[in-house]
Structure formats: C-alpha cells, structure tokens
Amino acid sequence: MSGEAEFRVRVAETETVADGIRRLRLVPLGRAALPLFSGGAHTVLTMQDEDRVLRNPYSLMGSPFDSSSYQISVLRTRDSRGGSIFVHDKLKEGSELSITAPVNLFPIDRRARRHLLIAGGIGITPFMAMMEQLEREELPFELHYGMRSKAGGAYWSALRDTYGRRINTYFDDAQQKIPLTRLLENQPLGTHLYVCGPAAMIDWVLTEAREAGWPEENVHFERFSAPPAGAPFTIELAKAGRVIDVKPTQSILEAIEAAGLTVPFLCRGGACGQCETHVVSCSGTIEHNDHFLSAAEKASGGKIMICVSRLKSAGSRIVLDL
Amino acid sequence: MLSTGIISRPVYPGLTADLKARHNLFAVEGEGAAAVLDLAKKTPPEFFTKATLLYCPAASAGKDYEKQIEARQPKALWTFPTPATVMFRLKGVLQTATMGTRLYVTGTEPFIGLALKEALEAGIDHKSLITEHRGSAKRRVQCVHCKGFTENVTTNPAKCGHCGLNLLVRDHYSRRLGAFQGVCIDAEVPGEAPAPEEIFP
Fold first, then answer.
1. Smallest CA–CA separation between B38 and chain A, in Å?
2. Which tens digit of pLDDT belongs to each residue from A80-102?
3. Is the residue at A257 inside a domain?
4. Which of A37, A166, B43, B85 sits at a 20 to 30 Å CA gap from B169?
5. pLDDT values of chain B reduced to their tens digit, one per residue, 201 residues
6. Is A215 exposed, middle or buried (0-12, 13-18, 19+ CB in 10 A)?
7. What is the residue-wise DSSP string for A116-164?
8. Which residues in chain B have their CB less than 8 angstroms from residue A184's CB?
C-alpha cells in the first residue's frame, strides 16, 4: 500500500511566491534521494499540530527528474481546517515532517497528440511538473492559466519566460477570461484536456467540453476535496471491535487514525478510491462527499469513502467493515 | 476451443448517437448500412446533416442501402470499392479532424478492427469509438508463428495463408493489429488436428 510508505523530510527552503501562496522545498532525511515521480503526482503531508494530526495532499510541482528534493505550493485558505494555516504559520526552514511516497491520479496520457492544460489559481501546481516532463519529451502542449490578479497568481511570469507563447495568462481583475469555447472548438483530433483548479472552474470546463462533443476519455481533472466539517457522530469498527467518536472537524479516517489504528488511504480527497469501505449498518444518512463512487453506489448506501464522507445528523451511528 | 473468457475479445455494444458531437464520421461496410438506417430512425434529422459516411457496400452490394442513406441527407456520402480504400480515406479525414468529431464504425469484425487501428493512430481512445457488428462473423487472424495475416477466416481450426500451419483461432485479440491470434494446433503430431468447422459464418 503506497499510502503506508512514508518517510521523513526537512523543510529546506520557504518562499512567499504570491499573495497567500507559500512554496516549500523538502529534502530527504536519512536517505540520499527521494523517489522519482511523474508529472501530476501528489504526496500527503503529515503535520503534527499540538495534539492534532493533519494530513493533506499536495501536488508535487518541482521537476520530476530531480530526486534531491520535492517542492509544493500551498494557498492559505479561509475555510481551512488548519492544514494550510499550519503550513503558512508553523512550518519554517528546518522543520521536519513525514510525507507519503508520491501517487499519481492525474497523469499525462501518452497517447495524446496534443495536451491542453487549464489551470485556475493554485491548481497550477501539478501542471508545473507536467510541463517539465512534456518539454523534455518534446510533446506539444499549451497552458491556459486563470488567476485573480497579477499579485495573487503564482509563477506566471517565470512560466512565460520558460515556455514562451505556450503560456496564456488571464487575470480576473482585468476582466480576462479563458476563451474556453474557442479553445475547445479548434483542437486537433487526439488532443487531451487537463483541468485543475477551484471546483466551480472544473465543473465549468467539464460541462463545456461535453457540450463541445469531447469524449470523456480525453478529459482529465484533479479535484481534491478537503473533508468538510459537520455534525459529530459515532462509528463502530466491526472487525476491530472498536467504537470511536468522530468530532465535527474530523473525518472518519482522521478519527480512526487518532484512535491509533491504520487503514489504507492514498489521496485523502475523495478521488482515488483506496479507502472505500463497506457499510455493515447505519442508523443515519450518509453524506457522500467523494468523486469516486457512482451515483447508484452512493444511493445504495453500501459503501463509504471514509476520507471525506460522514453522517448527516448528530448522534447517528455507522458500523463499518473494518 | 476458442478459449472463451479471454477479456481482449472485443464487444460491440451497438450504434448510439452522441448528440453533442459537432461532426459524426461513419465508416460503414456491408450490412453495417442497415445499422446506420436503424440508428437514423432513432435520431433527429440534424444528426445526419452533421454526418460524413465512408461506405463500402461489399456483401450488401445491390441492396439499395446507398439511396436510403442519401434520403437522410447526410453532409457527405462517399462510396468505396473495398475496405482498404475506405481505410485510406478514413486516415486522411482523421488527420485533419478536430475534437468534437465522433467516429462510428459498423460492419464485419475485420472491418471494425481496421477502422479502430486507424482511430488509435489518430489519437482516439478505443472506448470513444461507437461500434456495431453486422454481417459475417468472419475473422482476421494473425499467425503467431510467421506473423502473417489471413483474411476472411470462417473456420476453426484454419490454415495460415502464409506458412500453412493449422491454427487454432483464439479469442485473444490485438487492437493494435486488428486481428485474432492463431496458434499451431498440431505441433506435437503435425497433421493430427480436428477437422475445420465453419464456426465464423
């Protein structure tokens, strides 16, 4: 299980790269090199914040060909459960933490004849690594990158310097918008589309692509959900024979880990399916927050993705096959 | 004898219209024309005004399908004498096509296989292709020993048209080659093979 392959790293460098966006460079501790990864991969950081353990996925934005360090960029979010605030306020050069081996749920499709990359805000990070790879392999690509403002957007200037006219930038405060309809109409057959950004932007791109007659096989997206907060409830682990309370700001997965148990996980964002768990019985209604289960599976109530989904009402109880 | 349960055996779910597509490109062989006409009954007329059809009458020659398709007023209907000439034109059309083009293929299995090969080379995912099998169950077979392709195989076992070995035609299929794999059936005692049965009529 790659979710369990963790190793220690040290923060070697921090930099504020735009308003509210901080870049970290992580170097290995006790080993010479980090595993290589492919563009689009992410790692999960484990952050010890006083008595609380936070685990958040972040896309690797450095070069996939550099095993001496990993780089991530983190946006400070207002509705953060604490992960991004911890990265911004508590991590400093010299801090040590654990990360998981990289996993790629957003890879380049090598059968594509052309790659159309669409980024919104901090969603630029997986594309930074992807473009390094595309450039080295001499594959044709173009990036369309929307940001709130010049000051709030990261890396756009450096990207323009590196990749020239293949980088197209759009700033909200200058009323610039990605000309999606025109872009989708004029791509040669065999083009693959990749989108990463805020949920509303991903929805917009997926809908427009469908309307433009793009087959779903050519459209790729990465959407990490932070586990939403909600009502407190109780879980019972049928095999382990444990009863655990899930706090309002905890996910089921976090509550299980806080109780000292380990279960398989990869993305912790409802995308990969690794933590799919069978439901033995449930006294309440499941609030499915993942992007993995089909609508039919969600309706049946037989499965739950414990990284992001929870029960709707306080005091209800779910028995899991764990 | 076919070693069923081999998951590379393609399935052809039948033609359904992608109404969002900007352009509908059809490669049609023989009785596949009847599948196109069946689809036409279930789709709005606009669907065919956005359609280009590459059609090889083959086994359905003289059946008047061409006129019936023309009555649907497609954007273009081109007729070709052989599957190979359809493929040549298909390659050219795919080279200049844009995203939003949906490819439909219907006819015998070797024809669908050859069209899929062109589609893959043009960067179309095999899952994006919309297919329907009509007409003969004949197979295109590659001899795994001499690598030669034998067309129009209707029996099992079948003789390799190149090296002459007796081949067991398996369900093991290659999308890249557009062919089923044929493996020597009498390697231990040459000539000691079951009699060929016509099982792909």
1. 22
2. 677 888 999 999 999 999 999 99
3. yes
4. B85
5. 555 678 888 999 999 999 999 999 999 999 999 999 999 999 998 999 999 999 999 988 888 899 999 999 999 999 999 999 999 999 999 999 999 999 999 999 999 999 999 999 999 999 999 999 999 999 999 999 999 999 999 999 999 999 999 999 999 999 999 999 999 999 999 888 899 999 999
6. buried
7. EEEEEGGGGHHHHHHHHHHHHTT--EEEEEEES-TTT--SHHHHHHHHG
8. 99-100
Largest CA distance in chain B: 61
Tell me which of A104, A126, A159 is where a domain ends: A104
Q: From A213, A195, A191, select the one nearest A204 (Cα to Cα).
A: A195
Shortest distance, CA A212 to any CA of chain B (angstroms): 6
Task: Test B123 with A210 for CB contact under 8 angstroms.
Answer: no
Quote the CA–CA distance of A303 and A294 in Å, as a whole number.
10
A165 shares a domain with A138: yes
Identify whether A44 is part of a domain.
Answer: yes
The answer to whether the CB atoms of B22 and A185 lie below 8 A apart is: yes
Q: How far is the C-alpha of A183 from the C-alpha of A204, rounded, in Å?
A: 14
Q: Model confidence at A1, in pLDDT bands (50, 70, 90)?
A: very low
Q: Judge: A185–B98 Cβ closer than 8 Å, yes or no.
A: yes
Token pair 């427009």 is found at A208
Query: What is the per-residue pLDDT across A138-179, written as a single tens digit (0 to 9) for each?
Result: 999 999 999 999 999 999 999 999 999 999 999 999 999 999
- C-alpha angle with apex B51: B45 to B56, nearest 5 degrees? 120
**Which structure tokens are listed for B124?**
């179309």
- Cβ pair B128:A217 closer than 8 A: yes
pTM: 0.87
Q: Which residues of chain B are within 8 Å of residue A112 when distances are taken between CB atoms?
A: 123
Residue A131 CA: distances (Å) to CA of A197, A220, B58: 16, 15, 48
Q: Do A189 and B94 touch (CB under 8 A)?
A: yes
pLDDT of A134: 97
| Token pair listed for B25 | 């490109």
Question: What pLDDT does residue B60 have?
Answer: 86
A and B: number of Cβ contacts within 8 A: 59
Short-list A50, A116, A41, CA closest to A89: A50
Mean predicted confidence (pLDDT) in A247-268 = 89
Q: Is A218 close to B21, i.e. CB distance below 8 A? A: no
Shortest alpha-carbon distance between residue A205 and chain B (Å): 15
- The tokens for A99 are 């990360």
ipTM of the assembly? 0.87
Domain count, chain A: 3
Asked if A134 and A194 count as a contact pair (C-beta separation under 8 A), the reply is no
Q: Are residues B177 and B112 in the same domain?
A: no
